[in-house]
Amino acid sequence: MFDDSLETLRKRRSAKWRTYPADVLPLAVAEMDCSLAPPITAALREAVDAADTGYSAAQPDLGAAIAGFAARRWGWELDPAAITAVADVGVGVVELLRMLTRPADAVVISPPVYPPFFQWPVEAGAQLREVPLTADFRLDLPALEAAFAAHPAVYVLCNPHNPVGRVHTHDELAALVRLARLYGVTIVSDEIHAPLVLPGAEFTPLLSIPGAAQVAVSVVSASKAFNLAGLKCAAIVTGDPAMAALVERFPHDVRWRTGHFGVLATVAAFTEGDAWLDELLTELDARRAELGEHLRTRLPKVGWLPPEATYLAWLDCRALGEDDEPRELFLSQGRVGLEPGTRFGARGASYVRLNFGTSADILDEATARMARVTAG
Ligand SMILES: Cc1ncc(COP(=O)(O)O)c(C=O)c1O
User: Fold this and answer.
1) CB contact set of 368 (below 8 Å; sequence gap of 6+)
2) Which residue's alpha carbon is at the smallest distance from atom 14 of ligand 1?
3) Longest dimension (CA), the chain
4) Could you tell me which CATH number the domain at 41-272 has?
5) 114 CB less than 6 Å from ligand 1?
6) Ligand 1 centroid distance, CA of 353 (Å)
């Protein structure tokens, strides 16, 4: 599934392949270099052949597909009718924040975290509060309790967590839910990376925690695991009438903004994509091991904690420079494009995020280039 040559990949016109000059290996933007899962290709081809290119009508197929996938993969029983399609995860989170906050309200996030987490509360007109992860990249529950005691409106959870790859445990999430209930904070759980939990870790859907449904809402998507980001489909999942009522208050037009091809591809992915996804996870597990070996032998000054999920590696380059100097070094001299750590918050200084959702050969070449500019 990572069989395409660089020459073929460079013909792609998506952001990953348009962000850097042609001599740079792009390992920044979170798109994978894989081929599409065959059921997705078939669904999209069928739609093109039938000129089926109108507005999306997501339900009931999307709800049934997500509920089936959640039950099979995670033992999470959810109501297919309690699912609302949105254009993407960002739109879903921002619309939820608009419903859940007033201008003086605070929204808490835990950096280092996916850069739009810093923007979504601002876009919704609320105030941002940061409660960083602990030094070993876990939820800092005592610090979160202190922050929740000041009664922020919302905590936006990243589960699993981008960029550190942490899969929060059942106990951590249960403790988070207890705090949310105690202090009246609503949790919005971004679970876009959930299908990408790698061997060795187990995903806990937040809404599967007893008592969570009354204080939490989740946003899910097939777009990361099945590489569908450009097709524009994600879904909000609720498990309680009060939370469902929030979604019902969305402006009427929101549901018209979801991509029709996104819905068709997501239904195919979540209905018929399990075998392909299992193969992908095996590949990513191998790539994670290869990256660990390359770092150990070629880049000994670079530290990392192997991610438990995703194809993103959070690399500690503090021995190589300050702020974004390591990223600049790898880009300008090594011709490898990586995501600068500072985009993920102040504690990302001297880190870079590397996308290993690619072939063994490209990862080999990228780490060899990185090693050449750090030698000596
Ligand atoms: C945690 C997280 N949330 C959301 C997104 C973006 O999702 P969407 O394109 O559906 O807004 C990403 C993309 O990498 C992500 O890592």
Assistant:
1) 294, 298
2) 30
3) 61
4) 3.40.640.10
5) yes
6) 15
Q: Domain residues of the chain, as ranges?
A: 6-31+275-374, 41-272
Residues β-bridged to residue 340: 352
pLDDT digits (tens, 9 = 90+) for 5-15: 999 999 999 99
Q: Give tens-digit pLDDT for 26-76.
A: 999 999 999 999 999 999 999 999 999 999 999 999 999 999 999 999 999
Does residue 109 line the site of ligand 1, with CB under 6 A?
Answer: no
Is the CB of 162 inside a 6 Å radius of any atom of ligand 1? yes
- Domain 6-31+275-374 shares a fold with domain 41-272: no
- Between CA 46 and CA 58 the distance in angstroms is 17
CA distance 114 to 100: 21
- Separation of CA 4 and ligand 1 centre (Å): 24
- CB of 90 within 6 A of ligand 1: the answer is yes
Nearest to 286, CA basis, from 197, 199, 374, 352: 199
User: In CATH, what is the architecture of 6-31+275-374?
Assistant: Alpha-Beta Complex (3.90)
DSSP letter at 81 equals G
Residue with CA at minimum distance from ligand 1 atom 13? 30
| 166 vs 159: CA distance, rounded Å | 8
| Cα of 218 from ligand 1 centre, angstroms | 13
Distance 103 CA to ligand 1 centre (A): 25
